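Sample entry (256 residues):
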Amino acid sequence: YNHFLFVYLPKNATMNILKQENISLFELYSAMRIDKAECTNPYLVIPSDAYVKSSFKVLLLGKETNGWGTAEFQSPTIEDLEDLYNRKINDDWGIGGPLWDFYYSLRCISEGDNIEVPEFAGKVGFCASNIALIGKEYGHSGFNPKYAAQLSEILSQCLIILNPDIVLCPVGVGTSSGCDYPYIELLKSSLNAESCNKRETNCNGLYELYFTPSNSKSLFLGCRHPQGASNDFKENVKRYLIELIKQKLNLSPNSI
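Predicted structure, serialized as tokens:
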């Protein structure tokens, strides 16, 4: 795939291409189940109309979603899981949980009934996905390293299709636990990069991530997971993003 091929594609074309990646991900999930590998339902992303139509795109990449759809489905179909994403992520703003509450607070910047930055309306879109699109079973964090290469390839194609301008990775970057390491390694592999370095931003605890070599046009940011993070920290990250987006859209003369 050409990284810039999808920027101006109509919604139907974008969705058709993404559908193929969802099929590939579901086939990997089916193979893992046949192999009796520990796995949760795959995270099949369906970006909202606001994201697809936006001229500036922000993608939140979490770790993995363990137990995704477990309560709803025993043997889900692709359509079941795509519909689940639409209902839980695009339509239902009250799914709950630290990561999702943080995500929805970001979406309020440009979407919803009370848009916080009116000049972003119709221009800035948000989407949520994961670095590991298939996690382990419910209650077990992480992903199965045996399938890292396949997960990396599918993530690579999804990043190309979703074509984000900013990728925010709240996976534990900057914390002393090292919990972010396997996820950053998987992301690095998906970008065909050999190294990842981080640089502090003006927002304490938020880092720019530099993958080299990389032909991605996206700006990658990393920080701690919202769980356990203070409200002040999450608000500071949000304010930093707002100023960064204003700068990228030439709406603000100030540099950050």
